[in-house]
């Protein structure tokens, strides 16, 4: 069992976003020392890198908001010290070309019919459905028909002490750090353990209590990192050492 995608980034990964309609994963990497942020687009179907280390005109106060139907939506920050988002930039998922910008709108959430946005200048906010291809608002948001989009993501759950003991793990985990997810006849497990005096995070894929794949995700870390992997459709996605994207098709 080998990774379908194994890509090393030059800066730490801060955020991942997946467009389930086109099976594209987007990666936001940041270099705090230089105050620069980069964006990368990768096909989950073929492993092709559509674009890498793309920068916008705003080099730091921007980040990934969401992705939908071949469009990556970025946000700006209202200020350097606050978390409030203001302004949107839409990029073509395959070329990185800017399709539209709106400096006064903000993203609220994603629906089966597209993104819901609001004008930050109006109070109280008025939620409107938008066309993600153009940025134009089409009508008022209607919860009854604008349903939440299924992103086909599954996340691991914490294992009980009893389950952890029954897994026959090759290392002894720190208590309450075992997370798992069952997929078909496989059990995916992440855990923290002490090895050679340092805190490490391990990933195992098991079939009938036998390890069929393992990876050292992080070593010599300072704090627990429970969010170690996720499943998108039939693909296991994880980060190694905060800077390597690994994807395995199960």
Question: Tell me, what's the shape?
Answer: globular
Q: What can be said about the biggest beta sheet?
A: 5 strands, antiparallel
Detail the poorly predicted runs.
none
- Structural class by SSE content: mainly beta
The percentage helix is: under 10%
CATH superfamily of the largest domain: YVTN repeat-like/Quinoprotein amine dehydrogenase
What's the architecture of the largest domain, going by CATH? 7 Propeller
Q: Estimate the strand proportion.
A: over 45%
Number of DSSP helices? 1
Estimate the mean pLDDT confidence. 95
Element order, helices and strands?
A: EEEEEEEEEEEEEEEHEEEEEEE
Question: Which sequence of strands runs across the widest sheet?
Answer: 1-22-21-20-14
Write down the Rg: 20 Å
Instruction: Quote the CATH topology of the largest domain.
Output: Methylamine Dehydrogenase, Chain H
